[in-house]
Specification:
With about 140 residues, the chain is an all-alpha fold. About 70% of the residues lie in helices and about 0% in strands. The protein starts with 18 loop residues before the first helix and ends with a helix.
Length: about 140
Amino acid sequence: MRVEGPDRPEDSPAPGGGVYEWYTRGLELLRAGSAAAALQLLARAAEAEPGSRSVREALARAQFGARRFAEAAETFRSIVDDDPAEDYALFGLGLSLSRMREFEAAAEPLALAVAMRPGNKDYAAALRHVRATLAARG
């Protein structure tokens, strides 16, 4: 996946190190609250290792944190397409769709995530929010 535009122009130089370094540094930046900076490294890592679920999950988290909800939804969806039982990716997909105000589309992946992990309070809260929004819209 190529990321161009204001976050990483196409002609920008590759970051130093390899995929593992890009991935671990991206995770560090995510933990530090620098999603946009993490996005640059994780996009490069995902481009180099498109089959890595952990890299794609980190990329989706960075996209979400950088408020690139459509991109995050697409990346989370690719993980779910590969593994429909991946509850965190279902949660991320539903949350991304919710942030895009696509509440009807968000309900199903959130409900599936809750069914897979009924004790997860974050999953349940996101589903309650989506269902309340849908009910309020009538």
